[in-house]
């Protein structure tokens, strides 16, 4: 019985032709007009089936890289090709390279440019229609944009993990995402989401809290603090370029308190807040932001279009502080009628901040896009990167409309945000399941 079969030269002009090669053997191929560089290749088809594609010139050590893919029994088709040099999906590299090229050529070099994803909800294990390891894959692919040199900063707006797995697994997934964001010379920022403390897991098990008080800080905050280009004010992080200032806040600022069974007093998945110390840090930083154009970024929206609070505690209070800053006012925050953990009392004086203003608040959390103005502050919601197939109960209407699928551009969603001080414009460019371009005044 012959296991291997040598096939003579074949001309391949479409990726679909490679899908038809499933019989074990060695194939000599000439590829043109595919996702790969034109040229001669050797394709090995092995048990599984798996395919390994190697350019002929690689054998002569004159450049090139190899490619690999396996077969999906769930979808009855091959999975995406992986570039063995960087472990990136070939079609995504090609898509993002084409998508980002006009931005590299046309965005002003003195403007501030971010690469942003949010709500990856990474879960260890494969899920081809919903949250899964694709969350980590999408973080890897954000690095492709950074590799172009376009970005000043990479940003993850929270819910890095789904927080639904055993603590050791969730810790590993969270660390893996941070390590991936830290790759390369471009600095990064990650804010805390309401799933990042693993409370979804705790909700289903009658046992002590799965994350300690310092778990998130040890995995995320320490690497953030080690970056020279990312500045801090107390527990706040901020990033400056010219007269533009980005301030990153924690909308999951909830005290870590345990009951007599070692379980959390507050389910951080359901309770979101901004507390006293963070308000003090925000006030101090704003007071030192003379003539700056400021944009805040966080995981959850602070207030709804009609002004109603969108986080459990102090979202509208912070929005009111934004308004006071834009009016260059002096005053005092004095909250009432809430638990002591969430009471805020703080003085502020913004009379000496020159032409400074808070222009926008940018967030994720809602798994959809939306934009509205609230008392002069532009709110911008970004869609979730995590795959949300239309047949899952928790999939939002927005993502049902996209009819998202694994293995095509709707699988992910990401953004490049460009802040231009000269034109006083914020441009939001989306890829994948995201609006292609939105424009806002700063």
From TrEMBL:
<dbReference type="GO" id="GO:0016787">
    <property type="term" value="F:hydrolase activity"/>
</dbReference>
<protein>
    <recommendedName>
        <fullName>Calcineurin-like phosphoesterase domain-containing protein</fullName>
    </recommendedName>
</protein>
<dbReference type="Pfam" id="PF00149">
    <property type="entry name" value="Metallophos"/>
</dbReference>
<dbReference type="InterPro" id="IPR029052">
    <property type="entry name" value="Metallo-depent_PP-like"/>
</dbReference>
<feature type="domain" description="Calcineurin-like phosphoesterase">
    <location>
        <begin position="113"/>
        <end position="308"/>
    </location>
</feature>
<dbReference type="InterPro" id="IPR004843">
    <property type="entry name" value="Calcineurin-like_PHP"/>
</dbReference>
